[in-house]
Amino acid sequence: MLAIILPIISAIFIYVFGKYAERYVGWIATAAASLSVCMILSMVTDVIEKRLIHDTYAWIPSINLKLGFMVDMVSFPIALIVAVVSALSCFYSIKYMENKRGQTGYYANLLLFMAGMIGVMLSANLIQFYLFWELMLIPSYFLIASWGVSKKRLTIGFKYFIFTHIGALFMLMGILSIYVFTGTFDFAELPRVSADIPSTSILTVFVLLLIGFCVKMAIFPVHTWLPDAHAEAPTPISAMLSGVMIKCGAYAFARILLSGFGQTVLQTSDTLAILGVVTMIYGGLMALAQTDIKRLLAYSSISQMGYIFFGLGVYSTIGATGALFHVVNHAVCKSLLFMCAGVIMHQTGTRNIRRLGGLADKMPITCAASLIGALSLAGTPPLNGFWSEWMIFSGGVFSGKILITTIAVVSTAITAGYYLWFLWRAFFGTTPKNLENTRKPSWLMRIPIIVLAVIAVVVGIWPDLVLRLLSAPF
Amino acid sequence: MFTEPLDVLLIFMVTTPVVGWMAYRKAYQKILGVYAVLGLSVTAYFLYGVYREVADKGVVLIVGQMPFNPPLGACLEIDMLSVFMAFICTMIGLVAVVYSIKYMERDTGLTEYYTLLLGMIAGMMGVAFAGDFFTLFVFWELMCLTSYALVAFRKQRWEPIEAGFKYLIMSAAGSATILLAMSFLYGMTGTVNFASLATSLNNATPDGWLYVTLTLIIVGFGIKAAIVPFHTWLPDAHPAAPSPISAVLSGVMIETGVYALCRVLFVVFSPAQFHWGMVIAVLSVVTMTVGNVMALLQSDIKRLLAYSSIAQIGYILVGVAAGTELGLTGTTFHIFNHALMKGLAFLCAGAFIFRAKTRNLDELSGIGRKMPISTVTLSIAVFALAGMPGLNGFMSKFVLFTAVIPAGMAWLAIASVLNSAFSVAYYLRLILIIIRSPPTEKVAAAKEAPITMLIPMCVMATFIVLFGVWPEPILAFAQRAASCLID
Q: Quick count: other Cβ atoms within 10 Å of Cβ B25?
């Protein structure tokens, strides 16, 4: 649909003609991205009225493949938040990346990356899904390898690419085996035909797909690419990677495994829940140990993906709905935090938390926004993160996993711990001498932060705004 | 004499020396390239006529009366698969010739160059059109002889001579093997015509001699197709040849070997009777694994691409091993895609070599910033080779992998997917080296390739993307071509 095609076309346009308007290329890209947001938003009434939008076009009749787009209550909210976060990151880049070389290439890759992610959400069959899944990999690789911050960017980009690509190939093997057993790639038919898969191979197919999703979601023990890649990428891209890209794995889990392989999820749900909790605790403990702002946020993403994985893995309606809700909330809060971190890095020139302090006076808006983002992820009512975490944990209780859920709830204390430590060191306390002259950030960087913070508060007070658009896929 | 496209090619080939003699001054020599472009365009036009005829009638049979009747005269049997292969030859030939106009301008002996190039394309097209073993062999030798000379074309340096000689020895041994197999078949059945061979061997019980013949055929064509362990000439010959020739060699000639193998295997030795599927499956896994592992170790851009060609031949054989119509569709489709991808990759490598005068990857490092268009097209080609979705290589690999599982060879699919994953490492390494900054001294003065080289590259890159998102036209064509082998 247009929401996907538009960023792709404008990406090519920007790459080819961008050099004639180097100064405005960021604005053009932002306009294209915002237009894509509007297009997704225009489908909101259909989704509220629970009409399934399912368009198909002829694509490759020879092997019975159709080009299909599907919008329902699973894909819509996530696609929307992907588009919103990408458009805001694009806007944020105008100031943040203004003095970097290769502007046209940067924005072209950013838009392609965005199109890939929206494509994953709106695909109606497995092959198209895989196609977009890899489409988001290539531009994000170039974004890390060409615009990364340190000398190690090529190595880190390589690690990121290989990790994700091998995960994707496991997934491809799973997709091909689904086709061999059922003869279809269509998502809509998946719940019906998955009974055709013989019970001896269903677990293999399930595990193949799961590996692919887990790599993208950075679930322990296949998470090691994430801290490097997210810390290395330029900050607006970190916001997209951490905020939305890793959610593609969560979406895929919900879309394919929950709706098609419900029984298998149920059988393995203890293992899945334990994996989720281990990821939660591991990510949290590693975050406690970081002194680099972006690495701290990256490990926090791993920990948060553990929450989502846990919510999906316990296989209860409220847990899965909570997990999808948390996908949205984490996208808002984590990209908010990354953007705040970006502001701090941009204004102070350091990313070491130990060298920061007392910035609350210098940048009050950033401080308040970080506070909102961090407290929300730590599950403080009435911010949005509270609602989804609460739903995830009650999902765990509903499916009878009291012990694991208790451990999970206790582990949220870790989240509160590292965020408070970070906030305290960065914004309060004494200001080091070299930071006394720190200037206020530009409005171009403050606007996206404010928008995201407002979303976090509004959704926190009125969670039904998102919840009415969202339902578990079974 | 034969059929129009082939006649046109041969006429242009024979008249190129006349044009070259008239354009005696160095400044006029460009006319030769233009003349070859004209020749191939006319060929393409007539090929379209043949396509219409074949689409109408199914098979076009042309039996030459001159100078002898078959088996010594020419017998052409053109079906959709032949047209498909001829189409690829013409396309890559055209691209290579346009590219050569600028690339070869500093070389002497352009008359010979274009004559040989047209001859090689005519040879490949003749192999595709051949209706009996004898005709196939004659055109096969035309293709081989011209390619020996083209590999060793820059004769003032030692490397091309050595590579060309190695290639000559190995390929001649392959041709001899094919000739031996052909004489066995003639001795057993009294005919070399494919159709009659098929009928006479239809109910034959496979005995020792038939298996010997089958082995000879796999070995003979396998040498040209660079199937491991008969591949050792390729990594030497392809880098030594001028880049447009590498593009034709890697893009079409080795696939012609696969084509001839398929033609003989499927028409003469039916898979149900002779059970060669497993042999091809094993060869294919070995070929792709060796190709991929060796490619990882290369420090020469063209050698890396040459090993990648070997790996791609492994994927192409996957569909042959499956032996189903879907599998062969995958094979023909991948042949087409590989011609585009590898042709483009070699042309881009050629553009770097043209500007930087080195093939060494360490010396080429950082050239990406100097030659952005060539780098983007190379990235497209390389990502397509790695099987990234959205580009054509993914589509054909995907068809191949889905075909092979119902044929009962799931392990082959798994091995190919793992190989695919592994291959990304060296393709990515290639791109990394190209875009790594800052540029080395050697490439600091490089600037973007000239426009006549960029045009073919951009056209091919566009097609790679186009057929990646909309493969239907070629896939349908490949399907009709593949169904010719299964009936």
A: 7
